[in-house]
Each structure stands twice: as C-alpha cells, then as structure tokens.
Specification:
The protein has 301 residues and is an alpha/beta fold. It contains twelve helices and seven strands. A seven-stranded mixed beta sheet has the order 3-2-1-4-5-7-6, sandwiched between helices. Helix 5 crosses helix 6. About 5% of the residues have low confidence.
Length: 301
C-alpha cells in the first residue's frame, strides 16, 4: 500500500524531481525487502521448537496448579489467648503511661490542647452520631464497648438507653472511666475483649473503636480470630485510615494519632477468618482526622 502511494506521487511530481524521488523510493523498497527477510529468518525459522516450548510451559503450569489444589489448607494460626492478653496488657500499659496516654486522655475528656486533638474530638463526635444511627433502636440493646478507654462512648450509649459493658486492658483508664459515671452507669471491667467475646452470646452489638491500631500484626490477627469464634449479631469496627494529606502533615501530628490501618487489608482479613460479612461502611473525616466505620453481620446460614 505504501509503495502504491509512492508511485502515485512520483507520477504527479514534476520531471526535474521525479528521477531523484524514484531512486529514493527504490532504495526504500530494497531496504524493506531486506528487513522482511531478516524478520522471517529470525522468527519463522523454528516454529516447531516454539510450539514445543509453549506446550511444555502450559503442561508445567497445569502440574503446578494441580499440586496446589491437592495441598491441604494450612491450619488457622492460633495463639494462646491468656499469654497474648498478658503480653498485650503489659505493652499497652507502657504505651499509655507517657505522652501517648496524655494525648488520648485530653481527647476523651474533650479538652484539646492542639489543633490535631481538636480535629480528633470533632471527628469522634461525628463517628458516635453515625454509630447511634446504626444501632437504632438502641434502648435495651446489649452493647460491648471493646477498648472503652475513659468510657466516653460507653456513657453516651448508656445515656441513650443501651445496656453497656466497657472493657479495657489498661487498668488506670478503666479507673478513670468508673470515676466519670453519671446517671447512666455502664459496667466497666479490666479485661481483654477477646476473652469476653469467645463463646458468649450476651451481647447484641460489639463496638471496637480505634483499638486495632495499637496492636501488632499478630495481635490483630488474634483479635480477628476471636471475632470469628463469637456469635454476636453485629460488630462495628472503627479504625483510623490514612488521610489525604497524611504524608505531608504526619511529622507535625502527635504520636498518638499517627498509627493508621489499610482498610483493604483489614477488611479482607475479617472476611477470610470469620463468618462475618460487610454490611455497610462509611468514612468520617474532620480535617487531619480520618476514620472508617464498618458494620459486620453474621453470614446467613
């Protein structure tokens, strides 16, 4: 096709340039034929060998997939819960004994001293409003507040008529929660929420707010496995996620608000290791503060 257009152009060209263009066209035609010959020599010389190599590769893939399908599934990793709870409690006591704990104490008292703490307080208020909407009708509902801290959420839910039990591994936080009780009096205890959940049907809902961020990957997996052994109808998981400007403002934020979790990895882990399925989720953002609120329900049997 391209050669036809060249010949057509030569026919329409003036005589004084026709000979030069014809020579160039002939040179291009020879070069094209040479390249075609080289291509045929390189890629079409051994079709049978290429076909045999492709068949061998396909057979190898089939063998590997067959071996994988025949391999029994690996057992679910288990960690002795009592030892994990003791180690976790010791580590969390150390974590919340310094400035890290003071930052969260100001946030839960809603007495901010920095711009970042104010954002967290406003964002947590929005989160609690959304959670109350999801828990309706809340009157008489049995709720476990896992990692209750100073009991801010527990008292809010109890004030709306829920029967709330708040647990936390850090004893001095539980003491402050008990000291802040008003007319609505939740029950507070120093305990690992995993030990309370396993084999229990005493609750209608479990709220796990900004707890998983303090866990290591093994501790997080242990908590998710414990969720899979309970039969609470609904679990509400609230965790901090990377914000839009996290990489830029991270060095300026307090250490207590820095840990975040990847939503995809966390939700996928819950899906793989528990019978709970995602019912709904929503993101809450207040400037530098960003959390995801997720509700899980038991898979229909």
């Amino acid at each position: 096709n391209w050669l036809w257009w060249v010949v057509k152009g030569l026919a329409a060209a003036p005589p004084y340039i026709g000979s030069e263009m014809a020579a160039r066209a002939l040179h291009l035609l020879v070069l094209h034929m040479h390249l075609v010959a080289v291509r045929d020599r390189l890629f079409r010389r051994r079709p049978r060998a290429r076909l045999a190599a492709r068949e061998h590769e396909a057979q190898h893939r089939h063998t590997q997939s067959h071996q994988v399908s025949q391999t029994p599934p690996a057992p679910r990793p288990t960690v002795p819960p009592r030892r994990m709870s003791q180690d976790l409690a010791r580590r969390l006591h150390g974590l919340y004994s310094g400035e890290f704990g003071e930052t969260w104490s100001r946030i839960e008292r809603e007495s901010p001293s920095t711009y970042w703490e104010e954002n967290a307080i406003l964002g947590r208020r929005d989160t609690h409003e959304l959670l109350l909407d999801w828990l309706q009708p809340v009157v008489g509902r049995r709720v476990l507040d896992a990692g209750c801290g100073h009991g801010l959420l527990s008292r809010r839910l109890a004030g709306e008529g829920a029967r709330v039990t708040g647990v936390d591994l850090v004893s001095h936080r539980v003491l402050k929660a008990r000291g802040g009780q008003g007319r609505a009096a939740p029950t507070f205890a120093v305990a690992d929420f995993k030990d309370v959940l396993v084999g229990s049907d005493a609750f209608d809902d479990v709220v796990i707010q900004e707890v998983m961020e303090d866990y290591t990957s093994d501790e997080r997996l242990d908590a998710i496995l414990a969720m899979g052994e309970c039969r609470v109808p609904r679990i509400h998981l609230i965790f901090r996620q990377p914000g839009k400007w996290g990489g830029l403002i991270g060095p300026m934020m307090p250490e207590a608000l820095l840990p975040t979790l990847d939503p995809v990895s966390l939700l996928r882990s819950v899906h793989l290791h528990t019978p709970y399925r995602l019912a709904r989720k929503e993101s809450i953002r207040r400037r530098s503060y960003s959390v995801q609120v997720v509700q899980f329900t038991l898979e229909a049997e």
